[in-house]
C-alpha cells in the first residue's frame, strides 16, 4: 500500500509537471505567435519599404532621365527654327530699271525678267489679261476660250489684282491658215507688235509677260514669228530655231480636247465588271506588242518627185532617201520583229498636213490610236527643216504615242520637246540622231522588257500629269515658270477635321499586360506632344530637286509638308554640328534592354506617330482598344474616325490615356476616310489600325522603329499576297500562310502621311469609287498605290498573321462575300493602274536579338519579339 501511495504521489507530480509544461508551452506558443506576427509585420514593412525604395529609385531614375531629356530639349529650343517669312508682294509703282537691250531675241531671264516683282515668298501671283478685247488682232476660238476659262478658274495662283502680279499672261488666239502653215501670215507682225505695246501693264518692254499661244489644230500658223515681243516670254507649240530663246521661252504641247478629261470624271456606280475606266485601257504588259515599230504618214504632195512609188521625195535630201530605203528594209524583214510602216495614207483616209517639210498625219485620231495601242515603239519624225524645232503636228504624234503606251522613237536631236527644261524625256522616249536610222532595228530589239515597261510607265505619267487635259497643260506652263523662278508651290491642303467634343474619365486600375511598356525593361521618359517638322524643304524642292520633282509622282504642283524621300544625315553628324532632334541609343554608345528602350536611335531625328482608328457602331470594343494604349511611348495623339451615321452621344465618356484623343465625324460613311489627310495629323508617321486589332505595346513600338528605317513603305503585321489564277487568267486575293507576300493589311500598319495625300488627291478616283461601292478593299488600294509609287514591297514585322478579338462581334471581313469581292477589286485595280504594281517579298523583320542566345546578365531589345 505504501508503494501504491508513492506511485500515486509520483503520478500527481508528473501531472503537475505536465500542467506546468503545458502552460509554459502555451505561453511559449503565444510568445512565438506574437513574435511570428511581429516578424510577418516586419517582413511586410520590409517588403513595403523595399518596394518603396525600388519605386523611389525608379522615380529618381525617371527624373534623371527626364532632367536629361529636358536639358536636351532646352539646347534644341535655344536653336529655334526660323519662322515662315512674310509674304512679299509687288506694288503698282514698282518698276525696276533693267539693262537696256535692243535685241529682244537675245533675252535671258537675268537680262529681261524683273525678279523684284517675284519674291521667293510671293506665292507666284499671276494676272491673266481678258480675252478678245476690242483692240486685239486675234479672235480667240470658243474652244480655247472654254479651255482657258476652265483652266484658270480653278488655278490657285491667279490673282485679280494686277498691281501685285509676278507674271502677266496674254493669251494669243489660234490662227489657222487655209493655205497651209507655210503661207503668208494672216495677221501682220506690225499689228501684233502694236497691240502688245498697248497692253495696260506692258511697261514699255513687256517684262514679266508670258505670251501664250495655245494650238489645238495641226494647221495653225506661227503668228509671233517676226514680232517684236520685247522682254516677254513666249510659250507656244510652233517654234523656229531663230525664234526660240533657250532658257527663256517655253515649248508647249498642243491643247488637247476635253473628251478624255470628261470621261475621267465619270461617276462609278455600276458593277465592277461594267465600270468604264479610261477612254483607252492602257496595259503596260505584255512588254512587246503586235508591232515592234509603227509609223503612219504621207509626204506632202507639193513635192512632185517620186521615189519608188512609195512617197514623194524632196529634192536634194540624202537623209530622206536613206530613211525611205531603211523603212522598206524594216518593213520587209522579220528578224527584229513586225514593223508596221506606212509612207502613204490609205485611200479614203483623212490626210492632215503640217509644214511642207514634215510628214502628214493619216486617218482620224481613233485610227491612229488603234495602231499605236498595238505598237511597242512609235517612230516620230520631226520636220526635216532643221529650223523647225517643234510643230503642232509633231506634238500630236508625241502625245498620241504616250497616250497609247507606244514608246516614242524620235529620229532627230535638233528638236525641243515640251517642258524639257525640267522633264527628262530620255526616261520616256528614245531620242536618236538621224544618222542612227540604219541601226534602229538592232537598237530597239536589244532593249530589255523591264526597260520597255519602265519607259512606258514613265510616258504614261508624263501624259497624265502634263499633257492630257487643257488644265494640265496650263498648270504645267505656270509650274515651269514658277520652278524656273525658284518659287515653291503652294502647300497641299489638309482635310478639315470635324472634331466632336467629348468627356474623359481617369483610368484607376489599369491591368498591365505582357508586352506593355510597363512590363518591358523600362518606361521611357514622358514626352511632350510634338509635331513633325513641316515644310523644311520648301526651296530645295525647286532647286536641288526640281528635276526629280518633275519626273516623279505626283509632279510639281503642290508643296508637301514632308515626304518619305527626305535625305539622311551621316551618323557622325548626330554628334558633330547637327545633333538637334537626335536621340542616339546610350548617347551613341549603343545598348540593349532598358538603354535601348529609352531612346529611338536610328538615322532620323526623334519623332512621334499618330494613331488613326476607324470605327463603326462598336463603342465597347472601341473604348477597350483606346484604354489599352495607356502608357504607350512615342504616341502623339489618337484620332478616332467615327464612321457611324450618327455622332457619338454626349454621355459617352472616353478613357484618359495620357495623350489627346480626337474624335472626327466625317461627312459620309466611307472606308476611304481611313486615308484622308486630316488636319489633326501633325506627324509623318501614321499608324492605321482597326478598333478590333489587338496589338501589344512592344509590337507597336517595334513596328514604329522599323517604319523609321523604311519610311517610304507600308510597314505592318498581317501579310497577304496576290496569286495568279492560271485557269481564268486573272489575279486572286490570298490570305493563306505563305513564304511570299505582297500586301500588308492597313488594319494594323504604319505609313507616311504623304501617301494619304496621294490616296485622296492623286490616285485615280475610280479606285476610291470601287472602295465606296463595295465598302471593301481600301487596304488593297493603299498597297497598290505605295507599290506603284515606290516599286517596292511592303515590310511585314513579327510573326503575327491574324488578329483575335475575344468578345468582339463577328466582323464583316470574315464573310465569304467580302472575301470574294477582294478578288474583283484586285483585277479592277489592275485595269485602272494599267498593270499589277504589287511587288513580292520573301522576308519579314524581327528585332536584332530575337532568338539570340545571350548571357544571363544581358538583355534583349524586346522581351517577346
From TrEMBL:
EC number: 2.4.1.223
Domain Glycosyl transferase: residue ranges: 609-850
Membrane topology, as annotated: Single-pass type II membrane protein
EC class (word): transferase
GO CC annotation: endoplasmic reticulum membrane; Golgi apparatus
Catalytic activity: 3-O-(beta-D-GlcA-(1->3)-beta-D-Gal-(1->3)-beta-D-Gal-(1->4)-beta-D-Xyl)-L-seryl-[protein] + UDP-N-acetyl-alpha-D-glucosamine = 3-O-(alpha-D-GlcNAc-(1->4)-beta-D-GlcA-(1->3)-beta-D-Gal-(1->3)-beta-D-Gal-(1->4)-beta-D-Xyl)-L-seryl-[protein] + UDP + H(+)
Full protein name: Exostosin-like 3
Family listed: Belongs to the glycosyltransferase 47 family.
GO MF, one annotated term: protein-hormone receptor activity
Residue ranges the record marks as coiled coil: 11-73
Function: Receptor for REG3A, REG3B and REG3G, induces the activation of downstream signaling pathways such as PI3K-AKT or RAS-RAF-MEK-ERK signaling pathway. Required for the function of REG3A in regulating keratinocyte proliferation and differentiation. Required for the inhibition of skin inflammation mediated by REG3A through the activation of PI3K-AKT-STAT3 pathway. Required for the function of REG3A and REG3G in glucose tolerance in pancreas. Glycosyltransferase which regulates the biosynthesis of heparan sulfate (HS). Initiates HS synthesis by transferring the first N-acetyl-alpha-D-glucosamine (alpha-GlcNAc) residue (GlcNAcT-I activity) to the tetrasaccharide linker (GlcA-Gal-Gal-Xyl-)Ser core linker. May also transfer alpha-GlcNAc residues during HS elongation (GlcNAcT-II activity). Lacks glucuronyl transferase II (GlcAT-II) activity. Important for both skeletal development and hematopoiesis, through the formation of HS proteoglycans (HSPGs).
Organism: Ciona savignyi (Pacific transparent sea squirt)
Amino acid at each position: 500500500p505504501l508503494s501504491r501511495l508513492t506511485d500515486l504521489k509520483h503520478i500527481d507530480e508528473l501531472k503537475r509537471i505536465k500542467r506546468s509544461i503545458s502552460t509554459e508551452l502555451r505561453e511559449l506558443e503565444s510568445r512565438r505567435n506574437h513574435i511570428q506576427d511581429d516578424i510577418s509585420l516586419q517582413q511586410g514593412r520590409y517588403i513595403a519599404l523595399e518596394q518603396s525604395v525600388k519605386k523611389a529609385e525608379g522615380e529618381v531614375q525617371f527624373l534623371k532621365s527626364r532632367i536629361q531629356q529636358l536639358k536636351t530639349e532646352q539646347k534644341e529650343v535655344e536653336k529655334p527654327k526660323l519662322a515662315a517669312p512674310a509674304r512679299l508682294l509687288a506694288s503698282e509703282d514698282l518698276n525696276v530699271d533693267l539693262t537696256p537691250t535692243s535685241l529682244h531675241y537675245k533675252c535671258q531671264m537675268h537680262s529681261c525678267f524683273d525678279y523684284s516683282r517675284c519674291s521667293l515668298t510671293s506665292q507666284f501671283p499671276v494676272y491673266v489679261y481678258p480675252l478678245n478685247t476690242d483692240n486685239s488682232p486675234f479672235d480667240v476660238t470658243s474652244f480655247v476660250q472654254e479651255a482657258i476659262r476652265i483652266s484658270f478658274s480653278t488655278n490657285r495662283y491667279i490673282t485679280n489684282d494686277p498691281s501685285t502680279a509676278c507674271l502677266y499672261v496674254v493669251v494669243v488666239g489660234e490662227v489657222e491658215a487655209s493655205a497651209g502653215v507655210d503661207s503668208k501670215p494672216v495677221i501682220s507682225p506690225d499689228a501684233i507688235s502694236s497691240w502688245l505695246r498697248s497692253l495696260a501693264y506692258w511697261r514699255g518692254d513687256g517684262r514679266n509677260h508670258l505670251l501664250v499661244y495655245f494650238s489645238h489644230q495641226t494647221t495653225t500658223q506661227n503668228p509671233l514669228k517676226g514680232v517684236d515681243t520685247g522682254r516677254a516670254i513666249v510659250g507656244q507649240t510652233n517654234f523656229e530655231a531663230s525664234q526660240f530663246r533657250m532658257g527663256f521661252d517655253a515649248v508647249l504641247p498642243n491643247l488637247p480636247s476635253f473628251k478624255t478629261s470628261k470621261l475621267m470624271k465619270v461617276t462609278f456606280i455600276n458593277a465592277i465588271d461594267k465600270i468604264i475606266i479610261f477612254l483607252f485601257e492602257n496595259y503596260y504588259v505584255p512588254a512587246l506588242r503586235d508591232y515592234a515599230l509603227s509609223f503612219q504618214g504621207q509626204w506632202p504632195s507639193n513635192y512632185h518627185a517620186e521615189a519608188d512609188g512609195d512617197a514623194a521625195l524632196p529634192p536634194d535630201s540624202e537623209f530622206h532617201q536613206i530613211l525611205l530605203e531603211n523603212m522598206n528594209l524594216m518593213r520587209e524583214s522579220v528578224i527584229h520583229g513586225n514593223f508596221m510602216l506606212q509612207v502613204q495614207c490609205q485611200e479614203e483616209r483623212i490626210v492632215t498636213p503640217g509644214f511642207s517639210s514634215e510628214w502628214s498625219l493619216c486617218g482620224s485620231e481613233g485610227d491612229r490610236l488603234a495602231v499605236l495601242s498595238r505598237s511597242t515603239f512609235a517612230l516620230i519624225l520631226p520636220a526635216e527643216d532643221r529650223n523647225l524645232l517643234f510643230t503642232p503636228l509633231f506634238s500630236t504624234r508625241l502625245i498620241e504615242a504616250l497616250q497609247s503606251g507606244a514608246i516614242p522613237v524620235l529620229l532627230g536631236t535638233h528638236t525641243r520637246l515640251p517642258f524639257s527644261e525640267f522633264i527628262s524625256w530620255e526616261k520616256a522616249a528614245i531620242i536618236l540622231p538621224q544618222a542612227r536610222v540604219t541601226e534602229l532595228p538592232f537598237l530597239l530589239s536589244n532593249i530589255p522588257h523591264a526597260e520597255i515597261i519602265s519607259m512606258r510607265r514613265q510616258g504614261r505619267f508624263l501624259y497624265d500629269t502634263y499633257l492630257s487635259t487643257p488644265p494640265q497643260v496650263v498648270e504645267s506652263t505656270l509650274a515651269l515658270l514658277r520652278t524656273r523662278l525658284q518659287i515653291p508651290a503652294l502647300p497641299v491642303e489638309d482635310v478639315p477635321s470635324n472634331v466632336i467634343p467629348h468627356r474623359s474619365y481617369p483610368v484607376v486600375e489599369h491591368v498591365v499586360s505582357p508586352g506593355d511598356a510597363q512590363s518591358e525593361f523600362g518606361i521611357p521618359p514622358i514626352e511632350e506632344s510634338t509635331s513633325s517638322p513641316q515644310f523644311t524643304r520648301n526651296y530645295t524642292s525647286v532647286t536641288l530637286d526640281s528635276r526629280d520633282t518633275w519626273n516623279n509622282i505626283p509632279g510639281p504642283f503642290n508643296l508637301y509638308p514632308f515626304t518619305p524621300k527626305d535625305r539622311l544625315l551621316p551618323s557622325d553628324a548626330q554628334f558633330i554640328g547637327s545633333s538637334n532632334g537626335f536621340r542616339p541609343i546610350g548617347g551613341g554608345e549603343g545598348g540593349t534592354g532598358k538603354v535601348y528602350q529609352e531612346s529611338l536611335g536610328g538615322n532620323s531625328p526623334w519623332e512621334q506617330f499618330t494613331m488613326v482608328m476607324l470605327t463603326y457602331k462598336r463603342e465597347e470594343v472601341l473604348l477597350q482598344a483606346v484604354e489599352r494604349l495607356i502608357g504607350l511611348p512615342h504616341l502623339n495623339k489618337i484620332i478616332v474616325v467615327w464612321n457611324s451615321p450618327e455622332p457619338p452621344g454626349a454621355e459617352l465618356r472616353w478613357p484618359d490615356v495620357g495623350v489627346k484623343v480626337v474624335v472626327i465625324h466625317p461627312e459620309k460613311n466611307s472606308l476611304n476616310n481611313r486615308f484622308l489627310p486630316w488636319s489633326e495629323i501633325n506627324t509623318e508617321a501614321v499608324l492605321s489600325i482597326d478598333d478590333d486589332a489587338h496589338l501589344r505595346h512592344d509590337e507597336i513600338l517595334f513596328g514604329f522603329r522599323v517604319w523609321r528605317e523604311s519610311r517610304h513603305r507600308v510597314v505592318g503585321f498581317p501579310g497577304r499576297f496576290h496569286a495568279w489564277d492560271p485557269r481564268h487568267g486573272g489575279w486572286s486575293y490570298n490570305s493563306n500562310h505563305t513564304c511570299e507576300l505582297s500586301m500588308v493589311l492597313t488594319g494594323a500598319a504604319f505609313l507616311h502621311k504623304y501617301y494619304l495625300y496621294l490616296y485622296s488627291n492623286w490616285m485615280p478616283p475610280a479606285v476610291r469609287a470601287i472602295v465606296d461601292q463595295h465598302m471593301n478593299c481600301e487596304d488593297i488600294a493603299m498597297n497598290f498605290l505605295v507599290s506603284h509609287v515606290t516599286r517596292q514591297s511592303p515590310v511585314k514585322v513579327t510573326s503575327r498573321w491574324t488578329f483575335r478579338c475575344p468578345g468582339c462581334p463577328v466582323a464583316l471581313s470574315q464573310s465569304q462575300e467580302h472575301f470574294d469581292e477582294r478578288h474583283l477589286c484586285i483585277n479592277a485595280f489592275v485595269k485602272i493602274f494599267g498593270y499589277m504594281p504589287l511587288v513580292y517579298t520573301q522576308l519579314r523583320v524581327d528585332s536584332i536579338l530575337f532568338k539570340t542566345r545571350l548571357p544571363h546578365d544581358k538583355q534583349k531589345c524586346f522581351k517577346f519579339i
